[in-house]
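Homework help board

Subject: predicted structure for assignment chain

Our instructor gave us this sequence and asked us to write out the predicted structure in token form, then describe one feature. I got the tokens but I'm not sure how to describe them. Can anyone check?
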Amino acid sequence: MSKKNKRQVRKTTASTVPSASASVSAAEITPARSIDRDFNPDYSYVKKDLKRIATLAGTFFAILIILSFILN
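My token output:
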């Protein structure tokens, strides 16, 4: 197994820190696309399918229990 090498962390010095006059405004940092739209998906069909699966599973489980009493 190969030996892992640790990354060296660079320390920032006063010469690498941008001055206040060169700072970027908040408007330039924000992404270009609009986030006005809300993500609101409709999962009603998934709820219907899950209810149907639960009903079928419960029915089959009840049938198995009834059959176990009848066959013994």
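Reply (TA_rk): Your tokens look well-formed. For the description, you could write something like this. The two ends are 59 Å apart (CA to CA). That's the kind of observation they're looking for.
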